[in-house]
Write a structure and sequence with these properties.
This protein has 29 helices and ten strands. It is an alpha+beta fold and about 650 residues long.
Length: about 650
């Protein structure tokens, strides 16, 4: 039974026929392809014409836009050759293991070459030596010749060198009939390819030229000959790789476009991202998705999401990741990452991105407006921008390079990497004035009050008066026997005069160590030996910020300690805190998305944590820093997590 009949269900029987009463024939079990070793090859199934056209629907849609002609003309001149070609070669691979390899590769090569040749012909002058009337008659036809010649250009080399047979050993003669007709005649729905010893890639030969007239269709031939019969000859010569003075402009155009396509296709090859494997190569799919974003106008080079300079191509992250995940190329496929973090890891695994010595893919870039962005840099620029050439881009986008000539970018970059001077205690000091910072007179001003416990407005002047007349002696608590309501003790404590010899840094611990309960009760804290009261946790937040303990900061360093503080602030947001995993004895799971949102270099931070032994390891993968964990106990919904050891949680006094 043929493939077409099997799809349509012709010839099948059910229980209502006379065959229902017959004993069913016992068929021997067919060996599964993936259950045997060495693996068995059961041939390549013949593809239907409609399947091939739908697979290249995006390019065909762009072709229709550029053609800008009547629907009937587009059908006769463009759709007919495409349909005839799909039926003739079906889904023959474009090569054994090189460009356009895999079923459907040769058809895609032909469609892309035809479209881009037609697109490049727009604005070209093919008949500059002729008059206005002759030029008007021939220019449109020359463009159509470029499309047809480009469509046939990759065809000849493959059809000339390969051998295709069915299960019984019958050979398909490439010049005699289409492979679809041959398969129907021989009652087969699959075919087997034999490749020559030498490498064969798509390219022009006499076979392509000889098939051109057969595939173009009657209406297309009539349209060309209405202008000049010599154009038919020019089309077959170009498809056969024959250059003459007459066809020189069109030949050079088609040849240049094919060379560019081959270069771009090399960026898609799985071999570029690791050895060919029995499994899924994600890189070629991501390459298609990037080019889809540019073709659809979602990305505009050096204007939106993608930046380019003589040194390479950069994607602003994670905006680029969100666009890629929403693209048609990735959105409808299974087994692909579903989050920006997962996509970044996949691109790093596929060796698509530059990675520094600290295993981080992030770089700082500046756009044309001087705004800083976090980005990733592609190893192969052509994988995103087809036909990329360093000479096309003069301005630099790397933030370090831009900062040398732009003081504003230099300022912003320095601010981004700077860390505020840490306090000498576990509590951040209250804001101090410029006079206090330089050690001058600390006599309080009447209007100065603690931001988190301001006195009522009518009592501002009284507070200043009381503060001056009732200074609290160092190390003692003020009398609290008077029943008359008084302003909050915290306000009195701040504005009370202090000896000039006491530096601001010495005042800060006293203020930071005031328990909230003491403040609300109106009593001043006892200084004692300078230590915090037992009721105040060491990680208590002041004005909404977490302070890294000194011993942890010494081990991590200032930059990484600042990252930790930012991560804690991000994790404490309700939407992230609800995702924490705190039920495990050995570790606390922190969502990786929260870490990535808080800091620009998650890999740097996690590497340092792993170096100090503060990341809980997976026994099976001890070097893995990010793990897939269930968000609920025993649940199937999983997310990326970093596992912080319980020892570190206690040491760093983290508030969760």
């Amino acid at each position: 039974m043929s493939f077409i009949k099997r799809i349509l269900g012709i010839g099948k029987t059910d229980g209502t026929t006379a065959e229902a009463g017959r004993a069913p024939k016992v068929q021997p079990p067919r060996p599964l392809v993936h259950a045997t070793y060495p693996p068995r090859h059961n041939g390549i199934p013949i593809a239907q014409v409609q399947e091939l056209l739908e697979a290249q629907a995006e390019t065909i849609k762009r072709l229709k836009t550029h053609a800008a002609t009547l629907p009937s003309n587009f059908t006769n001149r463009f759709e007919v050759p495409l349909t005839n070609l799909a039926a003739y070669i079906s889904n023959i691979p474009g090569s054994r293991d090189s460009i356009y390899g895999g079923p459907g590769g040769l058809f895609r090569a032909c469609v892309e070459c035809g479209f881009f040749s037609f697109q490049s012909s727009d604005g070209k002058i093919f008949t500059g030596q002729l008059g206005v009337e002759a030029r008007h008659l021939l220019e449109t036809r020359w463009r159509y010749v470029c499309f047809l010649a480009g469509l046939m250009y990759p065809l000849g080399q493959i059809l000339e060198k390969i051998r295709i047979r069915d299960e019984g050993g019958s050979t398909w003669f490439t010049r005699a009939e289409s492979i679809t007709s041959w398969a129907e005649t021989h009652g087969t729905d699959s075919y087997f390819i034999s490749w020559p010893k030498e490498d064969v890639e798509p390219g022009p030969s006499v076979v392509g030229g000889s098939l051109a007239l057969q595939l173009v269709g009657l209406e297309g031939i009539r349209f060309i000959e209405a202008g000049s019969a010599e154009l038919i000859t020019a089309m077959t010569e170009i498809a056969s790789n024959v250059r003459t003075d007459f066809n020189a402009i069109a030949f050079d155009l088609v040849a240049a476009r094919w060379a560019s396509l081959k270069k771009n296709e090399l960026s898609r090859l799985p071999q570029n991202y690791g050895r060919v494997q029995f499994g899924q190569h994600i890189a070629p799919l991501i390459v298609d998705a990037m080019r889809e974003c540019i073709a659809a106008g979602k990305w505009v080079v050096n204007e939106q999401t993608v930046l380019a300079d003589p040194n390479g191509v950069y994607l602003i992250w994670p905006k680029a990741a969100k666009d890629l995940l929403e693209s048609v190329k990735l959105n409808e496929l299974k087994g692909l990452p579903s989050t920006p973090a997962g996509l970044l890891q996949a691109m790093m695994d596929e060796k698509m991105l530059h990675i520094d010595v600290q295993q981080s893919a992030y770089v700082d870039v500046a756009d044309v407006h001087g705004e800083l962005h976090l980005a990733v840099k592609l190893i192969k620029p052509e994988s995103c921008i087809e036909g990329y050439s360093p000479n096309d881009y003069r301005g630099l986008v790397d933030a370090q390079s831009v900062a040398k000539n732009d003081p504003l970018v230099e300022n912003e970059l320095a601010t981004k990497k700077a860390k505020p001077k840490p306090a000498k205690t576990t509590k951040p000091p209250e804001p101090v004035s410029a006079d206090e910072e330089h050690g001058t007179d600390l006599t309080p001003e009447p209007k100065r009050v603690i931001p988190d416990a301001p006195p009522p407005a009518p009592m501002d002047l009284l507070a200043a008066t009381i503060g001056i007349s009732e200074a609290v002696p160092t190390g003692k608590s003020p009398a609290s026997s008077t029943p008359t309501p008084q302003p909050p003790a915290s306000s009195t404590e701040v504005i009370a005069p202090a000896p000039a010899a006491i530096a601001p840094a010495e005042i800060a611990p006293t203020l930071a160590s005031v328990p909230e309960s003491t403040k609300s009760a109106g009593a001043a804290p006892a200084k004692g030996d300078g230590k915090e009261p037992a009721s105040t946790p060491a990680h208590q937040e002041t004005q909404g910020s977490y302070m890294v303990p000194d011993d942890v900061e010494k081990q991590l360093g200032k930059a990484l300690s600042l990252m930790l503080a930012r991560i804690v602030k991000e994790v404490e947001k309700p939407e992230n805190k609800s995702l924490l995993i705190t039920t495990q004895r050995e570790f606390v799971g922190i969502p990786f998305d929260a870490i990535q949102e808080a800091i620009s270099s998650p890999a740097d931070f996690l590497s340092a944590m792993q170096k100090h032994g503060w990341l809980h390891p997976d026994p099976k993968k001890p070097r893995l820093m990010v793990h897939d964990l269930s968000t609920t106990l025993g649940g199937s919904n999983k997310m990326k997590y970093a596992m912080f050891t319980r020892g570190f949680i206690k040491k760093a006094q983290l508030p969760f």
